[in-house]
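> call design_seq(struct)
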């Protein structure tokens, strides 16, 4: 997967340089629920990650690291192309971090993380 993306970049890179007007930005996180460094209630919650460009949600990934430093892959809802990644998880109180990795429609993968706190019930 990584080498495929690398090859894609090698092929697409010069094309994008030649056509600056056609160059699309890769996906950058615009906003999220919960917000970075924000607070959310415990229990079942919908998570939302909104990007500046369209992404292939079927080839994007979310993980959640819980207060015990356990990291699990969490489900990404749907499988289509859009600006938003959605997930639904059961959150326990404490410090948590969602790490996102998304494939933008321009073929570039970007990553980031959103740390937040879950309130005790
Ligand atoms: Cu890009």
């Amino acid at each position: 997967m990584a080498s495929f993306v690398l090859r894609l970049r090698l092929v697409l890179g010069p094309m994008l340089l030649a056509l600056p007007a056609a160059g699309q930005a890769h996906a950058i996180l615009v906003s999220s629920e919960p917000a970075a460094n924000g607070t959310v209630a415990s229990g079942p919650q919908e998570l939302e990650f909104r990007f500046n460009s369209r992404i292939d949600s079927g080839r994007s990934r979310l993980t959640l690291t819980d207060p015990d430093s356990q990291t699990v892959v969490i489900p990404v809802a749907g499988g289509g192309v859009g600006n938003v990644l959605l997930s639904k998880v059961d959150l326990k109180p404490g410090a948590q971090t969602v790490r996102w990795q998304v494939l933008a429609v321009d073929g570039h993968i970007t990553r980031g993380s959103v740390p937040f706190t879950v309130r005790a019930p």
